[in-house]
Design brief:
single chain, alpha+beta, four-stranded antiparallel beta sheet, disordered C terminus
Length: about 130
């Protein structure tokens, strides 16, 4: 399917237009999941309750920050000052130029020579979305 057909299918399944920022490679698995969800049903209620429970915090406790670790072998690529920089995710860290690092931030600092957030440098941070009440 071309992008136009995928957009129509998205509108049919989600009752809204897909974000222009979503690439075709991203749209396809989302549409496949939604199609299966419509055909066979969504998550079990017990799973939904469990997921919602992660958002609840007893006694004003600080929320648990859940970080998603990318799969081993994932590569981050960034062009900086006309040079291509590739980082590979390892089981316990990252590999950059045949050297192992514990954090992306250290790699970003080595590349730029200045203090950078590694996830921001490699384009992994997303702006917080405003919740509408």
């Amino acid at each position: 399917m071309d992008r136009k057909a995928l957009g129509k299918l998205w509108r049919d399944l989600f009752d809204r237009t897909p974000s222009a920022a979503l690439r075709r490679e991203t749209l396809i698995p989302i549409l496949a999941y939604r199609t299966q969800e419509k055909a066979f049903g969504g998550l079990k209620q017990s799973t939904v309750r469990k997921l919602r429970g992660f958002d609840e915090h007893a006694d004003g406790a600080k929320p648990i920050r859940m970080t998603l670790r990318p799969k081993i072998g994932t590569r981050y690529v960034r062009e900086y000052q006309d040079k291509l920089h590739e980082v590979t995710v390892l089981e316990s860290g990252y590999e950059y130029k045949d050297k192992t690092y514990r954090s992306l931030t250290k790699i970003a600092k080595d590349i730029t020579g200045t203090k950078w957030s590694g996830p921001a440098f490699f384009g992994l941070k997303r702006k917080a979305r405003m919740a509408t009440a």
